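User: I'm writing a tutorial on reading structure tokens. Could you give me a worked example: one chain, its sequence, then its tokens, then a sentence or two explaining what the tokens reveal?
Assistant: Sure. Here is the example chain.
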Amino acid sequence: MGSNLHQDNISTVVSDKEWESFMNVLFSLVGLAVPTKKSAMQDGSSGAYPSN
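And here are its predicted structure tokens:
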């Protein structure tokens, strides 16, 4: 994924496989919670990168 800064800190706690499934679940939940994310990313509006 390219975010080695976070991965280095977490790798001692969870394995790469566990981290990957966690991220997959997280993105799935975000996708369900934010159904407009896809269209926001396509038009490149400020909504593509939520501040929180």
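What the tokens reveal: The longest helix spans residues 16-33. The mean pLDDT is 68.
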